[in-house]
Amino acid sequence: MFRPMKEMEVTIAQIDRLRMVHFYELTGISAGDAKTQLTEEHLVSGAMAVAVYYGEKEQINLSELDECYSDLVTKVFALYQASSDRSQIMMDEATRSILEQGVAPLGKDLWRAFYSQKPAVIPEISFDSLWSKRFAPMVEYLLCGLYKASKMDLSIFRRDYGWRGATLLSGELNGEKSTHYFRVMRLDDDHYRIQITPFLKTEVNLVVKVSLSVESISLVFEAEGMDYEGESLFFFGEKECRERHIVNLGGQCIFYADETKPYREGELPESVRVLAPEIDGVTSYISLPIGITWARAVAKKVEGEMEVEKTCGILFYEQAAFAEFRTATDITNKKTGIKVRTRAEQVLRMKVTKGKLQTYFRPVAGNVGGHYRKLLEGHYFIG
Where are the domains of the chain? Predict the structure, then answer.
């Protein structure tokens, strides 16, 4: 199951030639601007924006408050890197300094060991086969918490895994035997839909929309046919994780919690480190109650007025022996204050046998290096 692309996503995907690019900071926006429908968020100055002129006479102008801003920035970096004559693309000095830093390599390449390896023709095990094990701890955490919010005691003591995300959970509800069935459906690389039955002693389905990234994880849920909804959110800040949980029934809030938890610093625990042998040195990480350990490793480079920070964010699903790696690069011109974030590599990894890992490098549109594009992208490696 896949979601349809939005019109702006299609437009951005079709850009194949840049004429002019300009990164800038939104300032001096007034509520009386007749040309733009502005929300309260848009009235706050300091948001980054980019104007892109392409094709014959087309243009797009988006700020980071717009939904497809990061898609547009990623496309700009990819086209700039691929351009045979970058000087022909018109831009101011500050914008060019940002784009040039995005092209330059930064520190150790995490995936260098794979450059000389021969990729596998087919995967040894399908990554889709892990959906049940990846999401079962998340479903259990959510179900037990929601039942508790409704003054019921649910415990799960057995999982029977099926294929492609189908799982039966057996346990006790208020001292009596109970079973819950859930199924996972993939919408795209970052979004999943989970359907859980039954819910609250009824035959209705609890539908959970899961969004995964290295910046945040969100579980937005709704009971079909009931006025019951809410969300569990995990935001990964600079030094701590913020958790926020909300449950609404009949338009009334029956549960609310908002707290922050500091990260741990240092070497990754051995149970997750086995999935990330490339990551060394000090790492920030935190184990979440949904069965995921989040971790972040950072490399930084400063040259004159330019600062480049490359972050590798990792989601470890310990019970599934599975990990997702995603890199992002923040490029800052300290003189102008302009800061741009781009996203690049996306790597999946799972343990297939004792001591053997299967690694897959997803095709991406970001400003990845030539080695990733030519030697790794779209390939599986087993060893």
Answer: 7-91, 112-120+269-382, 128-262
